Amino acid sequence: MAHSSPKSQATAPIYVALTGNPNCGKTTVFNALTGLRAKIGNYAGVTVERKEGRLRGLPPGRDIILLDLPGTYSLSPKSQDERIARDVLLNRLPDVPAPRVIVVVVDASNLQRHLYYTTQVIELGRPVIVALNMMDVAEQNGLHVDVPALSAALGVPVVPMVASTGKGVAELRTRILDLVYREQSTTGRGLMIELPAPVQETLTPLVQQLRSLPEWDGKVAPETAALLFLSDDERDESSSSVPVSLRGAVLEARSKLGERLPDWRAHLIELRYGRVAECAAQVVRQSEAPRETFSDRLDRVVTHRLWGMVIFFGLMALLFQSIFVFARVPMDWISSGFDALGEWVQRLLAPGPLNDLLVHGVISGVGAVVVFLPQILFLFLFICLLEDTGYMARAAFIMDSLMSKVGLHGKSFIPMLSSFACAIPGIMATRTIESPKDRLVTILIAPLMSCSARLPVYTVLIGACIPDKRLWGFLNLQGLALMGAYLLGVISALAVAWIFKKTLLKATTPLLILELPPYKRPVFTVVLRHMWDRAKLFLTQAGTIILGINILLWFLASYPKDAVMEARFEQQRLAVITNALPHLAGVSEDQLTREWEQWLQTATTEKEKWQEQMSAIEAEASAEKLRHSFAGRLGHAIEPLIRPLGFDWKIGIGILASFAAREVFVSTMSVVYNVSSAGDDDAAATSLAKVMQQQKRPDGTPMYTTLTGITLMVFYVYALQCASTVAVVKRETNSWKWPLFQWLYLGLLAWTISFLVYHAGRWLGWS
Amino acid sequence: MMANAALTALTPGQSAVVTDIHLAPEERSRLLELGLVPGTLVELVRFAPLGDPVEIKVRGYHLTLRRHEAEQIQVQSPPAA
Hints:
Strand order of the largest sheet of chain A: 2-3-4-1-5-6-8
Number of strands of chain A: 12
Oligomer: heterodimer
Strand content of chain A: 5-15%
Helix content of chain B: 10-25%
Mean pLDDT of chain A: 83
Shape of chain B: globular
Shape of chain A: elongated
Distance between the termini of chain B: 13 Å
Structural class of chain B: alpha+beta
Radius of gyration of chain A: 32 Å
Largest interface: A-B, 37 and 31 residues
Number of helices of chain B: 2
C-alpha cells in the first residue's frame, strides 16, 4: 500500500473526515482540533462549502488534514450537501482523497437519531471513532451514557466530550493519531441489522459479483456497498457510481426486490431504528429527569404567540440598527483613513499617471472594499450569536409561515433584512439556507432591498424633486417618497421570489426539516473564528474582483487625457495664484505652486476669497475632464437608451459611474454640475439638490421635475448598480452565470418599470 | 380511545403513537430516518405564532414540520401505561 512507505507518509497529507447530523457540535469539535486556521473553499463544480484544517500540534512534514463534512441525516442523501458528505466517505470524489479515519460526532443528549447515522457509517467498515459530544447537556437532561458499553455495542472507540469547553478534545486527538498511524485493516464489520429474507436473497448474489470485479478496491465492506447501490434512488444522478459492469445487475435486482417487497426501503429504516433503540436502552440510564428543561421554559416565551413576535422584532431592530448605525462609526474612520492615505501618497509621489492610478484607482478601490468590513463583522457577530445560541432556528420557526407564502424558507428572512444595510453581508448570510434553490432565489432578490448606499441617492433626488409639503396635514411628502422607495423594493422582492419559485427555479417545495436544538451558551472563540473566516473570505475573494472593477472605472473616468484642456486649466490656476500673491510674478510654475500651498497654511486674511476661486476652477476642470473621458462619451452613447425614461446624458454618466457603487451617483453628479464638494457628504447633497433644481432641458423646462425624480428613484430601486454585489454573487454561486443573470434581470426590470412610471406620469398630465 | 387521526389534531402537550405517514416516498423516508417510524411516541409541542409550522418532540428532540406535512402523519393514542 502506498501509505505504508515512510516517504509518502511524510509528504502526502492524510485526510480525516468529520461527519455527523446537523446540530451535533461538529464545527466546535473541528475548531478545537484544528485551532484558528482553516481553509474554506467549494467542492468542485458545486456550491457546497469545503472546510478543512490541519490537526493542531503535529511536527512539520506530518500533515493530517481534517475535513469538516456538511451535516447529514443519513447515507441516503436528500440534498446536495448530504450527497457530498456521502461521496467523500465513499471516496467517490476525484479531488478528495479517501479519508483514512472517519470521526462521527454524536449528540449524547439525542442519542437515538444520531446513532441511526452512526451505525450506517460504521457499516462502511472504515476505521471510525465516535466523538460523543454534549455530555453535559445529556447529564442535565438526566441521561447517563455508559461509554464502555456503547463502545462495545458499536465495536468502535467512543470518546466522551464537551467540545465547547475543550473536555475530551485531547483524548479524541490521541485516538485519531492512534488509528491514523496504525497499520490499516478493514474492521470486517458488516451490516448491523438483520436483513429481511427477500432483501438478503437479492443482496447475496450482488455481493459475490462485486467481490469478483477487478476494479473493486475493497475499501468499503462489500455488503454495505452492495446495499447502498441497491438503495440508491433511481432519480439520483450519482447512481452512476455503481461500477459499469454491475449496473445491469443492480437495476434488475432493484426492480425484482421492488415487486417482492414494495416498501423494503422503509422497512430497513424501521429495522435500523429498532436496533438503535435496543442499543440505546442498553447503554443509557435515565434518572429522574426535570419535567421541563431550561430550553423548554425559554421556548414558552420565545415562541409565544405575542412575546415571541415582540422578541423577534426587537432583535431584528437591534440587528438592523447595528449594521445601519453602529457600523457607520468605524466605516467613517476607514473611509477618512483611506482619504488621508490617498492625500499622503498624492503629495509623496510626483504627479502623473502612476500617482493618479495609485490614489484614485488602487487606494480608493481598496478603500471601497474595506469600508464594508465593519458591516460584515457586525452582521456575522449577530448571525453567529443567533445561530450558536439556537435562536436562529426559532426565528425561522416564527417567520416560516410568512416566507412560505412566496415559496421561501423561514431562514431567508435574515439575509433579506440584512440587505437593507448592504446586500453583500445579506448575500453572505444566505449560507444558512440548506436548499440550494431557496438560497439562490434569496441571493437573486437580496439587492431589491434598498441598501444604505441608496440612501444618499434617494436623499439628493427627494431634496431636488419632491416638494417639502404635507399631505392631509400630517404626512410629509418627502418622507412618504422615501418610504415608498423602500416598500417598492420589498414588494418587488417578494413578487420576484414568487415568480422565480414558480418558473425558473421551480422545485417541489422541499420538506421543511427544522430542528429546534436546546439553547446553548455561545463559545467566544468560535464566534470570533467565524467572524474572522467570513472577513477573510470577503477580503481575499470578493475584494480582488471589486478592486479590479474599481480600477477599470477609474480608467474610464480619467482617460483619454486632453493636454490642451489641462494646460488651459493649469494657466487659470496659476493666474489665481499670481493674483493672490502678486510679489511672486516671474518665478517658475513649480515654485509658484509650492509657495501657494505654504501661503495657504500660514495666511489668515483674504484666504477664503482666493480659495473659492481656486475650487471653482477645480470643479470646472473635473467636470470638463469627465465630459471628455470614456465615461462621458459612454454617457452620450447610452443617451438614446435612457431618453425614453426622461433622462439625459448627464444622468447617464451618473448611472454609469454608479455601477461601481450607487453612492458614487452623488459625487459624480456634483462633478457633472460643477458643485464644489468641499465638506462632508450631507452638505454636498444639499447643495447638489439646489443646483439640480436649477437645471433646464434644452427647451427651457426644468430638468428635475417630480416625475423625473420619481422615475430615477424607481430606477435605483431596481438596477443592480454595485460591482461589489456582482463580485460576491459570483463567489457565492461559484460561476458568472448567476451574477450575470441577476444583473440583466434587474436592469431590465429597472428600465421597464421606470419607463412605465414615466409614461404613466406623463399620460396623467404630471410633468 | 382515539382512532387513527392526523398529528395536527392533537392539542399542544398531547402525545400519540405514529401509525403511518402518507407522503411521497422521498419525504416519507426522510421523516422515517428522522425517527418517526411507526410505533414511535410523538408529542405535539406547539404551533408557531402564525399557526404554521408545528413543533413536535420525538425520541427526545424537537423538530419542526410544516402543517401540510404534519397533517399526513397518522397517529393513535398510546397504549395505556
